Amino acid sequence: MYSQERINAYLNSLERPQNPALEKIRQQALAEGVPIIRPAVQSLLQFFMKLSRPESILEVGTAVGYSALCMREACGESCHIVTIEKDAERIAKARENFAAFGAQDQIRLLEGDAADRLRELPDGVFSFIFMDAAKGQYLAFLPEVCRVLAPGGMIFSDNVMQEGEVMDSRFAVPRRDRTIHSRMRRYLYVLKHTEGLTTSVLPLGDGVAVTVKEGESVRLMSAESPEKEAGSAAARDDGRESAPGADSCGIHSGAVAAGNAAIQKDTAGGKNDGE
User: Fold this and answer.
1) pLDDT, tens digit (0-9, with 9 covering 90-100), for 255-265
2) pTM exceeds 0.90
């Protein structure tokens, strides 16, 4: 049985050399401890760029601009990218990198908290959304992400396996990591069980969830844990009244938004909890 680490190492070894200027940004980010997309996941992201040729892309979590420039390289000059970041130092570096590539007019950087900036964006304008911000906030961002995603559009969520910890019981996870562990498990459950969303979770890099929005609107599943959701479903089947927030909810209100009130108060737009 091959380990995921060996598989990733082999896949990374197959990658061909990339643009030297992009590679310089990657190496500098790694040296400074800035979380950036991993090579095999970058290859998959660029594959989807070339396959779907999205004209309007949203990135949640800019960091130093590396992944935005990778998407631009794959799509060409016809695409427009909006990217969100709240860390002032990373914003400055990203703007510097965009300017060096002559991409400042093609890539629009929105400064501030992603939870706030997402609400300012119009409905259904993006055909591709790359989620690569604070992993504990993915679920809090999801209602607005679904709202701004066009029918048939794709959400590409990176780092959803948390180095494999997401598969473990919360009691097997260090106490300091249990909040993000439970939030990511709920995020994946909602993606997989929401009608109107089709999701495949791939064990590539640190895990990628690829989601397609099937129609105009999506009613997100409850933000309850999978165990509680199963109990609620059983109660509904028995004709008993469900607990508040147990039913599926709309994009603008309901269990996901209400269940994540605590998440919203510390929502971060940047990549603050690691790759």
Assistant:
1) 344 334 433 44
2) no
- List of residues 6+ apart from 1 with CB closer than 8 A: none
Angle at 263 between CA 261 and CA 265, to 5 degrees: 75
181 touches 127 (CB < 8 A): no
Q: Tell me the sheet residues that pair with 157.
A: 131, 209
Any domain includes 274: no
CB-based contacts of 45: which residues, under 8 Å, 6+ apart?
A: 37, 67, 70, 71, 74, 130, 156
| 30-86 tens-digit pLDDT | 999 998 999 999 999 999 999 999 999 999 999 999 999 999 999 988 899 999 999
SS3 101: coil
Q: Report yes or no on 194 lying in a domain.
A: yes
Q: Which residue has the tokens 């607005």?
A: 144
Is residue 122 situated within a structural domain? yes
- The residue type of 112 is G
Contact 83, 66 (CB under 8 A): no
Residue 125 makes CB contacts below 8 A (sequence gap 6+) with 56, 148, 150
219: CB partners within 8 A, 6+ apart: 194, 195, 196, 248, 249, 250, 251
- List pLDDT tens digits, range 195-206: 999 999 998 888
**Total domains in the fold of the chain:** 1
Instruction: Look up residue 80 and give its two tokens.
Output: 């427009």
Domain enclosing residue 85, as ranges: 4-218
Distance, in Å, from the CA atom of 121 to the CA atom of 17, rounded to the nearest integer, reads 36
List residues bridging with 255 in a β-sheet.
Answer: none
Helix and strand element counts for the chain (H, E): 11, 7
234 in any annotated domain:
no
Query: What's the CATH code of the domain at 205?
Result: 3.40.50.150
